Amino acid sequence: MAPEETKEKEAQEEYTYYPGCSLHGTAHEYEDSVQEVARLLDIRLTEIPDWNCCGASSAHMTDHGLAVDLAARNLRIAEKTGKDLLVPCAACFHRLKAAEKAIDAETGRQGGQTPKIGVLHLSDWLRRPESLRKIRDAVKTPLKGLRLVPYYGCLITRPPSITDSEEHEDPKSMDFLIQILGGEAKRWSHKTECCGGSLALGRSDITNALVSKLVKAAVRADAQGILTMCPMCQANLETNQLELKQQDSGHPVLPIFFATELIAACISESMSANRWKAHLVDPQGLLSPLGL
Amino acid sequence: MNETSQRGSEGKPQTRTPEGPVGAILVMGAGIAGIQASLDLANSGFRVYLAEKSTAIGGKMATLDKTFPTNDCAMCIVSPKLVEVGRHPNIDVLTSAELLGLEGTVGRFTAKIKQQPRYVSPDLCTGCGSCVEVCPIEVPSEFEQGLAPRKAIYKLYPQAIPSTFAITKRGTAPCRAACPANISVQGYVALTEAGRFEEALALVRQDNPFPGISGLACPRPCERACTRKQVDHAVQIRALKHVLFEHEAKQKGGIVFPAPAPDKEERIAVIGGGPAGLTAACYLRLQGYEVTIFEAETEPGGSLRKLAEKVVPGAVRQAEIDAILNLGIKIHLDSRIQAEEILSKFSLTYHAVLLATGPSRKGKDADQEASDISDVSSVFREFDPVTLQTNLGNIFVCGELALGKKPFINAIGSGKEAAVSIDRSLRRVSLREGRDLPTRLGKPPAEEVDAYREKALLAPQEKTKVVGEELAVEEAGRCMACGVCCECYQCVEACPAGALHHEDREKTVDLNVGSVILSPGFDTVPGDLRGEFGYGVYPNVVTSIEFERILSASGPTSGHVQRPSDEEEPRRIAWIQCVGSRDTTCNRDYCSSVCCMYATKEAVIAREHDPNIEATIFYIDLRAFGKGFDDYVTAAEKKHGVRYVRAMVSKVYEQPENNNLEIRYVDEKGEICTEEFDLVVLSVGVQVSEQVKEQAKALGVEVDPFGFTKKPTFEPLATSRPGVFTCGVFNGPKDIPETVSEASGAAACAGGVLSSARGTLVEESPFQVESSGEQNGDPRIGVFICHCGINISAIVDVQAVAEYARSLPGVVYSTNQLYACSQDNQDKLREIIQEHRLNRVVISSCSPRTHEPLFQETLQQAGLNKYLFDMANIRDQCSWVHRTDNERATRKAMRLTRMAVANVTQTVPLNESEISIRSELLVIGGGLAGMTAAREAATQGFPVVLVEQEPELGGHLRNLRRTVDGKNAQAFLNELRNQVLADPGIEVLTGAVVVGHSGYLGNYSTEVMTSAGTARTVEHGAVVVATGGEEARPEVFGLGSEECVLTQTDLERRIEDDPDGLKGAQSVVMVQCAGSRDEERPYCSRVCCPQAIKNAIALKALRPNIRVDVLYRDIRSYGLIELKYMEARKLGVNFVRYDPETNPIDVSFENGKAVAMVNDTSLQRRVRLDADLLVLSVGADPADTEELATQLKTPRNEAGFFIEAHAKLRPVDFASDGLYLAGLAHYPKSIPETISQAKAAVGRAATILAKESLRLSGIVSYVNPEQCAVCLTCVRACPYGVPFINEDHTAEINPALCHGCGICVAECPAQTIVLRHYTQGQLLAKIEALPEEDEVSRAGEVQNVEAGSSL
Fold it and tell me: Which is it for strands B1180-1182 and B614-619: parallel, antiparallel or unpaired?
């Protein structure tokens, strides 16, 4: 008798978008998958006009003022849109948040005041139940029990004083994602360990050791692949594994996915032949049996 | 000992004079602090309101397994106190209470207290637990730290006081609140989930006689209100009802109503046979009334008949209507009743008339379909919308006539309400009472809803139509139990005592009190505060408080140490210290004070449970700063093999294969280490809860950023609000003895401001008249065998022992009980004694040491002399020591019981003599402790004699200049000294020593040699020993021989008195534990670390560039002193660790300067420290009290500190009543701690001094003069010097002085001394009962028993 509650038509999600250099360069597959997911889930991303370097790689090591100013310029442009700023790269996110905090401290500005927009890493967006529900409802080809470990690295959630993360030691967004995509999120203790990405050029011995530890821990956790949301982690884990394998043929090698790549693959209507082309560790042996 | 008279009381409660203070105190928080303060106050003449937020008193201590450093069972030592509170005539316990506000000022406060009901009457509840068995709702047990479930109706723990059960209600579930018929929806959903379909349907029928129709056609307002909708979709409540109805049809073949109550005389007419009329008729008939329905149509049913056949099949409708009518309701069909008829006839011939005819025609078109309905609405002018009573009194309305056009479920609801009103009006009780109270909606907290949401997101459930019972159970399981208690009323039916009152409401009371003690206690820091340790993620990471429950015999694993992931016994256990302590990253900058010791205790106890356990404690500094603590830690390390690793753990990793845990840390050599463990225990710190912080704010009590009270340094138990005092962890982190000591001190403060009102509001416990006639007759013995939870019953077959006891001579009654000491069993014991006319009682349980007085008091209450009693200790001496052999342990328990029974057959009633009590207090020692005690006692109105051996008052305080927080100690000392000297209630004897001491509790006589050389006799009722101590001067590191070497106190004096003299000093090296924690002075002196930090900060203030190095073993800046330690480090003071064995300090002297060489562990290299001044933290020595101790017969430890009666719960008492101790004589302590303890000693002494008289024990020796040979053996043997030769030339023993030790009895060559209650006859009877009576017959069976076995 009582009419079932009618679902309100949700307004289209809209964000200002900051790709950063990685997504326009080495991690273009991250960029492609982010754009594909946004398109499929009807999310409008508007790239910041005339954006500049976030200052992550060298500025913050050399000049504090410059590091803040570089990121702050991007923030100021983004603020004019009034829309929250979505950032897929962990390092960009970190710099932008650091700049936001520096500005807040300087101006005494507080959350909720204008002009102020939210700075979200993609994992912040993913952590929202409504985002997960949206993805869940759109899954066409599930992961069917694919065993994955979520790997967040250092910059996405830590330190909480910068990132505002409420679960900085045990983030869960990708854990949930894996499950709603139909995969199995394996528990491991290395979610937020460092991959050594920042030392990749100068001290590759340290980076090698850290990557080896991570990949071996993932294998011990019975995972078939590693999920990331950071272009540095992804590249670092992938390339170093191959090097480790060269040194020791028994060293395990796992495919490293961007979370958005798997979302796109699972919710897309059609299979893209080029989807996994950019991967140095070919995941197709793992995915093609699932129809991905 | 029984109090018989209270000083200042006239035996009856008095009304206070309008101007005077109120002789009552509010104590907020009933942990051990609140309990101790309440007992001290109530025992010294005040009325106490003890308010507690949970449903039982006991606090955190009750949840602990054992306590350090004595390894006493926490429950065993606290439970006698719980019971004492529970039965104290002058303590009112208010549970589930919250302090809303406090008006007024000291002496006259009004406290507004909000109290949630228990929903169970304490007067009726017997504690049988039948309600718990039937309750369908399970929630995590807060007492078990969520490791085990409890029911919605519960007792917090078995020994809980009050022992009454309580129900957790969050409020009315939204489904029920939304239901127009007010059906207990959550209740029947819960019963459905439990598969209890019949009870569920019966519950529906209590409010709705049409579950069949409703299960198909109800518009479901409940589902619209369902909280589950916020998660995914509402619970399909209507469908469940349908399944219940179908189940009944299938199982019973039809509808089953309960039988109506016996017929009543009253007759009721119901006009209209629609849903409202039928409902009202149904419930009135079930009450036994004679009910007649008049229906205008040819068939009953009204609007129910308009429901479509495809929605509600006619057969269902007919069955339900028939079932109602078959209850014995008369119905007249086709019978249209006119309005005039009702007024002229019905209202006279029927006791009540209910108008349920459907909508009124008033103002409507007469041609409407409803035209065939009689317009009865003209009968009345108005009606009450709540009671449905019209202005005509015995005429009521319901259904659409009252509500207008509404769905049938609303009509059912109003029919039911009308029935309630009619019943009430016929019973002549208030129609309105309890019916128009606002509904408090119950909803799960947001976190709980979020957790459901997360679950639903990850494992979405399709909304499937509920068909069949299996799906119904599953669907019912989706209910989120909004109200916690589901109001299924199964407990009401199960309770044999009729104790349940679901309709109780919260109440607010105003209490008139003179002062307030805040003892709200603490929370443990949440385990997930430090995410890197994986608490809440890795199953085998537990908090220390959870581990206490795992260790506890009454805990969720029955004391079996197992890990959560697989219930395997862990072999390697790690403790991580300082989780949420000494951590600025999470706003817990302070040290929690207790964790080092409790972790040590847990490690020791875990190893006692299972010697295979390897225990490792990861710590920063080991803070064993209390009395006996260093010995305890040494024993843990050396004797129990506990491993201590000085390292802060950086992270815990879980091994995916087996849930083992890998700990990563940096060791003292700077190496990164990893180690694997089976279980990790987080030593979580203490914190003040947010609620308490808010409450403090509301009361105007200032707290620091962590929530601890701010108070004046020299009034450590005061708060910023006059008349409001505090004790326990709210006053700063601390352990149990300090908490207890502070509690007694707070009691002294709270009572002190009200001393003129002492005795004005107390009640005396009624003195029981002993029914002496029966007591001397043939023994009628009752035997009670206690399970002690599982402490005894897990090993000993208690039932078999109870049955066996029944066969013993003289035994007329025997039973076994879960906890003989619980209050309900004490009540039972009293009843059984009277019912079975018992004149002897034996209880086989735990130790008489803790429980004998309790049982004896109960005997007295039952009119029995308390000496007609014996206890057999079948726990400590049987079940605990024979864990591996149940059968023989059981036989031993029988034997011990048999001996106790033999003993009581020989007992006789004994008289207890009454002595008067003097109100004077003697304080020995005129230092800070002594002067504080003297002042406090004088304020309370007790005359004081203060004896000091030095020519002036002040003691060691004269040497100190500043407190740790920088306050001027000398100014305070001068003020205090002047106050003492000016106080007319204090007689000060300086330069005087105690040379003789005699007398007994309440009547002491002490000889004092004054400075003038004359002897002086002081008569007094109690003694406070405050003989103090001084800084040691060991000849180490050049102290006494090198000019540049001085002690911390020397330095303190120079900083204050001669700052310019220090100008030349460039560098200062301090050495901690110099001559302390070594062989000569094996204890930690507690005050040296804070003093060194204080002096280092003062030096830095004097000369910011001065270099200060502190060489230490463990920095023991416990509690809030940690903040000072941090301040010192921030100022640039260097702290370098040394170890006398592995990294000793090498000190030499060059040109009048000191050179200290030591390995700096953080640098991993040897450093040379040149010091202008070498300052030694040398520890404290007690004053020489050897002679005094001999005179007072008070024990001292090896170091010369006096030994308190019990390290945990009697920290300021001596074992002998009437003697108390305070200050350095007890153990080194800070200035505020000394003040607290001195006040505590007075708080304790007041429990004696406030009384006019006392009764003494009957267990005393008696000399039979006829056979006395006057050999003087007893005179020489008595350790208390009691026997003397009297005028008749025989030995005599003054019963008031005799301690009942029995030494004279054993020594007397003529065997003419008898120790009452331990007579030769009793002992012989016991011994005769000792051998196994069937030893010979069993010889074959037990032939493998070795001779001399303990069994």
Answer: unpaired
Query: Which residue of B220, B312, B457, B579 is the best one to mutate when testing the A interface, meaning the one whose CB has the most A CBs within 10 A?
Result: B457
Name chain A contacts of B465, Cβ cutoff 8 Å.
Answer: none
CA distance B928 to chain A (A): 47
Residue A92 has pLDDT above 80, yes or no: yes
φ and ψ at residue B226, rounded to 5 degrees = -60, 130
CA distance B346 to B587: 76
Average pLDDT over residues B105-130: 90
Q: What is the mean pLDDT of residues B1165-1188?
A: 96
Calpha distance B263→B279 (Å, rounded) = 18
Is the ipTM beyond the 0.85 threshold? yes
On whether any CB of chain B is under 8 Å from the CB of A179, the answer is yes
Per-residue model confidence as pLDDT tens digits over A20-57: 999 998 899 999 999 999 999 999 999 999 999 998 87
Query: Looking at chain A, which residue has its C-alpha nearest residue B458?
Result: A180
Q: C-alpha angle B448/B452/B456, rounded to 5°?
A: 165
Residue from the list A1, A132, A222 with its beta carbon closest to the beta carbon of B656: A222
Tokens 């599930």 label which residue?
A142
CB contact under 8 A, B458 and A186: no
Q: Give the pLDDT band of residue B1 (cuts 50, 70, 90).
A: very low
How buried is B1190 (Cβ within 10 angstroms: 0-12 exposed, 13-18 middle, 19+ buried)?
A: exposed
What contacts 24+ positions apart, CB below 8 Å, involve A73-80? A74/A18, A74/A48, A75/A99, A75/A100, A75/A103, A75/A117, A75/A119, A77/A48, A77/A49, A77/A50, A77/A51, A78/A16, A78/A18, A78/A48, A78/A117, A79/A115, A79/A116, A79/A117, A80/A115
Long-range Cβ contacts of B1292-1298 (<8 Å, 24+ apart): B1292/B1263, B1292/B1265, B1293/B1260, B1293/B1261, B1293/B1262, B1293/B1263, B1295/B913, B1295/B1256, B1295/B1260, B1295/B1262, B1296/B913, B1296/B915, B1296/B1000, B1296/B1003, B1296/B1256, B1297/B999, B1297/B1000, B1298/B1260, B1298/B1261
pLDDT value of residue B76: 86
Sign of the CA dihedral with B789 first, then B793, B795, and B801 last? positive
Q: How far is the C-alpha of B253 from the C-alpha of A52, rounded, in Å?
A: 80
Is A136 within 8 Å of chain B by CB?
yes
Q: What is the pLDDT of residue B770?
A: 65
Asked whether the beta carbons of residue A189 and residue B460 sit closer than 8 angstroms, the reply is no
